[in-house]
Design goal:
This is Argininosuccinate lyase. By secondary structure, this protein is an all-beta fold. The chain is built from no helices and seven strands.
Length: about 110
């Protein structure tokens, strides 16, 4: 696997700030054969996807990057969506990001 990409994405979604909320950190890995061109993380209680954390960038195959969710919420349970340049997408629901450590997209 290639080394960690030097850029760290920060998801400062700026929900209402909750006291004592902790930031959530994990490593995002693209082990698929396509570029990851959109990456969304939303609280599981939300009915909508939050903004693209790649911010018009992309994560190439065989690369990884650190992700920081600093939204001020006191929840650990989030949904994740990845969209790839080949038109495919993956959605994963109700993930405990407090215990995740790493999330890998595969073919």
């Amino acid at each position: 696997m290639k080394s960690i990409v030097a850029v760290q994405f920060i998801a400062a979604v700026f929900f209402a700030t909750a006291a004592h909320a902790e930031d959530l950190e994990f490593v995002l890995v693209n082990d698929s054969s396509s570029d990851l061109v959109e990456f969304n993380v939303s609280p599981a209680s939300s009915g909508n996807w939050e903004g693209d954390l790649l911010d018009s960038g992309y994560l190439a195959p065989n690369y990884e990057v650190g992700v920081l969710i600093a939204d001020g919420l006191q929840t650990c349970v989030y949904d994740i969506r990845g969209v790839f340049d080949d038109g495919s997408s993956v959605e994963d629901y109700s993930l405990d990001l407090c215990d995740l450590g790493e999330y890998t997209f595969l073919d």
